[in-house]
Amino acid sequence: MTGKPIVQFKNVKKSFGDLEVLKGFDLDIMPGEKVSIIGPSGSGKTTIIRMLMTLEKPTGGEIIVDGENLWHMEVNGKLVEANEKHLRKIRGNIGMVFQHFNLFPHMTIMRNCTEAPVQVLGLSKKEAEQRAVQMLKKVGLADKVNNYPFQLSGGQKQRVAIARALVMQPKVMLFDEVTSALDPELVGEVLQVIKDLAEQGDMSMILITHEMDFAMEISDRVAFFADGLLMEEGPPQELFNNPKSDRLKSFLQRFSRV
Amino acid sequence: MRGATVTVSLLLASGALAFILAFIAGLSRVSENKAVRVLTMIYVEFFRGTSLLVQLFWIFFVLPQLFDIRLDPFTAGVVTLGLNYAAYASEIVRGAILAVPDGQTEAAIALNMSKFQRMRYIILPQALRTMLPGFGNISIELLKGTSLVSLITLQDMMYLAQNLRAADYSQSLQVFGILLILYFVLALPLIVLSRYLERRASRGVASA
Amino acid sequence: MEIFNWSYAAEVFPTIFRAMFVTLGITLASFAVALVLGLILTLLRRSPVKIIAYLTYGFIEFVRGTPVLVQLFFVYFAWPLVPVIGFEMSAMTAGISTLGIHYSTYLSEIYRSGIESVDQGQWEASRALNFSKAKTWTKIILPQAVPPVIPMLGNYLIVLFKETPLLMAISVNEMLMTARNLGSQVFSFVEVYTIVGLLFLLLSYPSSLFVGYMERRMNTRYMRKAKVQKMKKEDVIS
Questions:
Q1: Are the CB atoms for A96 and A173 separated by under 8 Å?
Q2: pLDDT tens-digit profile of B165-195?
Q3: Nearest by CB: B121 against A100, A103, A115
Q4: Per the record, what is one GO cellular component (chain A) (predicted)?
């Protein structure tokens, strides 16, 4: 894994009103790299990937995607705030799976997966459907194409959401606590799908997760956030077996000994 | 009763106008452009804040004097009813759009859809379901509102009933009794429809 | 002719302004009728005697489905001709009763939604404490059902206020009627109708802002929206 990073966070900050959620951090993601972000609630983890997905606007710093500035663009040599067109261009590199699935309730599973390829990428309906079926097979739900979201279990919905994001063929895929809203017995099937993806793909992945074993298993690197700061980062073995900061130690203790 | 034709065509014309305007105004209310938002809000609050009958009189009697715009009673009725009920219906449109969970917009952004695509393919189809019962109720109110045009001499059911009564006072009971029933018969399909839509909406679509 | 005659407007303003109080009086009187009658309709609709419940439901839908103006004419002109129970009323009484009856059907829907939002457990607890039926209603259910719907009742007060000009059709001297009489003396309606429109706006818009404010406060108090918003915020920063 060498070469230029696909995503770079440079001194990125975010405040909600008076509340400073992220106090400035740097983080690079390499092409094909799987990075897990862990940390206590309220440490701003979700905000990190929401800013990358352009759902929140950073209050400071820069995010670079594939060499291009995400929130700013160059006009006549000057950096100005990105407009919708610029955002859309860069955003095409990124896909996201949400905690609460956010499937479109008024569309069948097939249309959930084909609407964006047809509307955004301009694929023909047939091409889009071929791609969708391929991805739905990957997540093991090719038989549900004609069902509506409300007919699926939580785990199945989340797998459809993963397929829906995959159809867009992003270079970077974001997973926002994708198993937190699931019943415990459904967590496994979703994690398995993500694990398969991680093993076969050259797609970069950023995962926010509370599943420590899972993070250890699939990540190339783990980043620990607390109090709005990137406290520690490194290969999972090192981070989990040999935490340096007290913050991380106590955080891991709470997890493993429960 | 020939007046029924007038009442029904008035209902249809002003209903069409009202729903088209309601969509335009409802979308403007959630626009990112502040000027558009404020202007629409003024329109909505103005028509909701003053009385329908006063608006009707104003458009029918004052406009000709003030701007030399002369509308025949039917047009004045359609315009007033349309503008008035569009103001109410636009609130339904706006509410329904805002009621679509943020997650839907976010998912659409994550799929890189444009603003227009988000509204057209993701938000509106879902909002429409929520709007329908409200639209049903508005159309009942609109039907009732049409009776007011008799006061600007449009010869609808109400107006002709008054004429009949004027011809023979002893017939008041029959005339107005029949008139009430006629209106109710016209409203009945709308009532049944909106109660059905209400029930369907309260059952709801399970969230995704 | 001048387009908008200010001195004439100033001249007629006091007369219209006085008529405004007639309008307000009509509004309050008919709202009082609607409040009481609405509650009665709600209770009748929940009657265990099926036929009463259905008749009430039919009455509500019928009244809601037909125009106030027609009802007004029916009450004023036709009711006196109804055998046995019919009697004659002044235009004012007819107007107030019609508006009151009409809006009582709307208010009964609001009461109903309030009652239905009271937790089932409250009924069960009242039964467990051996409250009588009347006591359950007056001491337990209604005190919980009514406050949350007060803003919605307020909305209908404003709606009712805007319906009062209809009474001019049976020659009640409210604002619009007064304006028309004044206007027809000089064959100019610009000033009078504009004044009436503005007075309506001036009274109803602040009221609706106030109702909106109450609504938000009630929501916080009864922990509905507030809870959702709080959860959402936590979600975002977790």
A1: yes
A2: 777 777 777 778 888 888 888 888 888 888 8
A3: A115
A4: plasma membrane
